[in-house]
Amino acid sequence: MAVHYRVYFQKSLLPADAQLEQAIQEIVPSFQFSEKHDFRKHSGYCVCVMNGTECGFEWEMACLAPEEAGIDGSAYSHYGTLSFRSSKHDEFCAQLFAAALARLAKGMIELPDGGKIEGSETSNWIKQRNSLFPAGKKTRARKKKRSPSEQLSDWFDELVGASVRLLVQSLPDDPYISIVFSTNKRIAGGYWSFDADDGRAFSTLALRRDVVGEQVRKLEEGRQELAQLLRKADIGSVSFDLVSLAARIAFSGGQMAFFARAETPLITESYWERQRCWSMMDSKMVTIKPDLDSGDLIFW
Questions:
Q1: Among 90, 82, 95, 107, CA closest to 14
Q2: What is the pLDDT of residues 106-143, one digit of tens each?
Q3: What is the rounded end-to-end Cα distance, in angstroms, of the chain?
Q4: Which 8-state DSSP code applies to residue 235?
Q5: pTM (predicted TM-score)
Q6: CA distance 166 to 216
């Protein structure tokens, strides 16, 4: 279940990302936004780094309704919602951002339990929560070396509750597809299947590259049905099966899986058949995939 912090403010006082980053660095010197953000226009997952650990939150800004604009006797024009669910790092990241925004924009934080903190009071509030990352000199963030399975597990955790932003297909005769999630992660592969709650199902496990004839029509129908299922779906769970090397995704309306190889692979798999093995990538192009020779996950 997602946790939400809300910050009320005047839109004209919304700081630039550089100002917000500098304010947060007064508490956690290693804090950085992974990329530039225009929080007036940007919505979606905001990736941050603290002490080399990636974290973040979902950001969405909205205009206050007239009856809400005078909350606690103050005049605010907009509010920003910060949502997270995956870890304590994400929680502290959201708290840091909320505190900096409320202080700089002379706003107010509404806590998940309904409590409220004025912008002038946020410094003491956030310092009390600074137990995960002690203050110190600003240094270049060092990333902890993580195994592919640990990194993939973190990515899977982030996907819970996310939505599908885009489904991209290859050529009409190629089963390869790529799914882009709202967390800016993507999974792609040529061996996949889905089973819908309404009984619809499709699989490419028995298909080879460059399908022909009736197979092309069935492949297109399968991709269209999958796109319809994913368009309004929320991700429920994602898991990796070490035995079959499959990535399994449960979503509202059904489930699907990406596989490492065909149902009955050839004795000697071609280059293209091995390329159809699934892989997952983040916004920084870090890629993880199963290694068919070792039977384990690798960075690729």
A1: 107
A2: 999 999 888 999 988 998 888 877 754 554 444 444 45
A3: 32
A4: E
A5: 0.52
A6: 21
**Maximal CA-CA distance, the chain:** 74
C-alpha span between 65 and 273 (Å, rounded): 55
CB proximity list for 299: less than 8 A, separation 6 or greater = 148, 151, 286, 287, 288
Residue positions counted in the chain: 300
**How far apart (Å, rounded) are the C-alpha atoms in residues 264 and 3?**
44
Residue range 12-24: average pLDDT?
92
SS3 track for 8-32: EECHHHCCCHHHHHHHHHCCCCCCE
Looking at residue 138, its pLDDT comes to: 45
Q: How many DSSP H helices and E strands does the chain contain? A: 6, 18
Q: Is there a contact between 202 and 222 (Cβ–Cβ < 8 Å)?
A: yes
Nearest to 277 by CA among 246, 255, 237: 246
**In the predicted model, what is the mean pLDDT of residues 269-284?**
77
Determine the residue type at 108.
M
What angle, 0 to 180 degrees and rounded to 10, lies between the N-to-C axes of helices 17-25 and 88-104? Answer: 110
Contacts of 179 (CB under 8 A, 6+ apart): 164, 166, 167, 168, 186, 187, 188, 230
Please, is 70 exposed, middle or buried when counting C-beta atoms within 10 Å of its C-beta (0-12, 13-18, 19+)? exposed
